[in-house]
Amino acid sequence: MVRITRILCVLFLFIILNFGCSYDPTIIYFVRHAEKDLSDTTENPPLTQEGKNRIEILNALLKNYSFDGVYSTKYDRNIQTVLPIARKSNQEIRIYEWYDWYEMIDEIAQTKSKNFLICGHGDNLIPMIERLKGLSPIPELGHHEHDKLFRVTLYADSTAVEMITY
């Protein structure tokens, strides 16, 4: 009887250690909106042709991924940047304010085994990565840098950041 109890305890421990506590990491892709028309001085300028081309490149880059959540600020340039990917993933774009993203990031950080896409601006992407305890490969995004995609992988005990130029 003692031997059977020990075997069951060892089996139980094996199951807990190998299945009960393990999960795939959460992956968050951060992208800045595509190029906007700088001659338009309104708050919500349209994308340039270069920006529209960039969206196609981003779509091709992420074509094999499905996302559990897609986030964007309210600006057309941001929404247009991630709209094709949101549609492919059958997701509605969740809108956040460019300056008020802390709760969104904290909520995403608590998820397990999911994939997210967040479209932001040059001044909020790096701070979001740092909030997730990620080490950004660059200190800031330049005013005309629209070709960076950051892949942030959240493991149980660490955060990995990869920058992809596209």
Q: What would your notes on this structure say?
A:
The chain is an alpha/beta fold. It has one domain: Rossmann fold (3-Layer(aba) Sandwich). 36% of the residues lie in helices and 20% in strands. A hairpin with a 4-residue loop joins β5 and β6. α2 runs parallel beside α3. It is globular and about 50 Å long.
Task: Summarize the topology.
Elements: H1 2-20, E1 26-32, H2 49-61, E2 69-72, H3 76-88, E3 93-95, H4 102-109, E4 115-120, H5 125-131, E5 148-154, E6 159-165
Parallel strand pairs: 1-4, 2-3, 2-4
Antiparallel strand pairs: 1-5, 5-6
Helix pairs in contact: 2-3
Q: What's the CATH C level?
A: Alpha Beta
Mean pLDDT: 91
Outline type = globular
What is the terminal-to-terminal distance? Answer: 63 Å
Proportion of helical residues:
25-40%
Strand portion? 15-25%
> Structurally, how many domains make up the residues?
1
CATH fold annotation? Rossmann fold
How many distinct beta strands? 6
Could you give the order of strands across the largest sheet?
3-2-4-1-5-6
Order of helices and strands: HEHEHEHEHEE
Rg of Cα set: 20 Å
For the sheet with most strands, the description reads: 6 strands, mixed
| CATH architecture annotation | 3-Layer(aba) Sandwich
List descriptors.
Rossmann fold, 36% helix, globular, 5 helices, single chain, alpha/beta
Short description:
The protein is an alpha/beta fold.
